[in-house]
Design a protein that fits this description.
Elements (H helix, E strand, L loop, with lengths): L1 E2 L7 E5 L11 E8 L2 E5 L4 E7 L5 E7 L2 E7 L4 E4 L5 E6 L2 E9 H11 L12 E4 L2 H14 L6 H18 L16 H13 L7 H7 L4 H12 L3 H19 L4 H7 L5 H12 L3 H6 L1
Antiparallel strand pairs: 1-4, 2-3, 3-10, 4-9, 5-8, 5-10, 6-7, 6-9, 8-11
Length: 289
């Protein structure tokens, strides 16, 4: 949100995150800080969630669609501005916010693939000072992932899909029906996915390409995969990358940085961090142990 306070400059940190198909154009996440002031915005084709990260409650005046909110907003509280909805805010004290923007095209695509609903009559409902632990958790995971040196498309795709489905289920004009799929992925199809992941460990895999292997929505693919494997697709991929690195460390004399790239890590330090978290050892210590 643009701060229009006179003679004051916002301190902004942008975290542009990749989406599954349009290279960051569908989902954007960034955090920003502003001195006391006011701002307004209107995103014609993007649904926007503003969540407070300020450690102390701040007094706000917010308005959209003829509705006005006045009061304290605490850390974790969020406001929701649907696409095309003018949003105005005035705040007292230094604000610190997390902004998540989802394009209307992306939201409707997820709704059509996942919810089996008439998307033309569905829209999100504007809201002020809402509280939802599920949304708070997803948004903070997005922020944390975006701050990594190597952002995983598979991880961000999964979070964006889960967030969108939750918003549609809880904050849409029409309460959609979410089909229930139980029992995981059939063994033959699961083997197909696991073989594909194993053959492409070094690539920045997208959730969409994995789901497409089974002609399934990304949301349902993620849920069924976890039912089958006990891990999310991203967790499984990370596990397999570390396992491949362990093999190469023991069976070859390749430099560790080369092993990192061959296993899909972005750097020596990226491999070391994930390797230590899973094994308790650094790659160097593991190689000589």
């Amino acid at each position: 949100m643009e701060n229009t306070a006179p003679q004051q400059t916002a301190v902004t940190a942008y975290l542009n995150l990749p989406s599954s198909e349009q290279k960051g154009k569908d989902v954007h996440v960034h955090q920003f800080q502003n001195p006391p002031g006011e701002g307004q915005c209107q995103f014609e084709s993007e649904h926007t969630l503003f969540m407070s990260l300020a450690p102390r409650p701040l007094h706000y005046v917010q308005s959209q669609d003829g509705n006005i909110f006045t009061g304290l907003i605490q850390k974790g509280d969020f406001s929701l501005a649907p696409a095309g909805s003018p949003f105005f805010a005035r705040w007292e004290g230094h604000e610190h916010c997390l902004e998540v923007k989802l394009t209307d095209q992306f939201v409707r695509k997820v709704a059509q693939e996942t919810l089996e609903q008439d998307c033309d009559r569905m829209s999100l409902v504007p809201g002020f000072r809402m509280r939802d632990p599920h949304i708070e958790t997803i948004a903070m995971m997005m922020l944390t992932e975006g701050q990594q040196n190597a952002v995983s498309s598979l991880m961000m795709d999964s979070l964006a899909n889960v967030l969108t489905v939750h918003l549609l289920r809880q904050y849409a004009t029409i309460q959609p029906h979410l089909p229930v799929y139980e029992g995981g992925i059939p063994q033959r199809q699961l083997a197909q996915v696991l073989d594909y992941m194993d053959a492409h460990l070094e690539q920045d895999l997208k959730l969409a390409e994995l789901a497409q292997l089974l002609d399934m929505s990304q949301f349902h693919f993620s849920r069924l995969f976890k039912q089958s494997m006990g891990l999310s697709p991203f967790q499984y991929l990370l596990q397999q990358r570390v396992e491949r690195a362990k093999q190469l460390l023991k069976q070859t004399d390749q430099p560790i940085v080369d092993i990192a790239f061959e296993c899909g890590f972005s750097s020596h330090s990226h491999l070391s961090k994930q390797f230590r978290q899973m094994t308790g050892l650094t790659p160097k210590v593991y190689r000589v142990s």
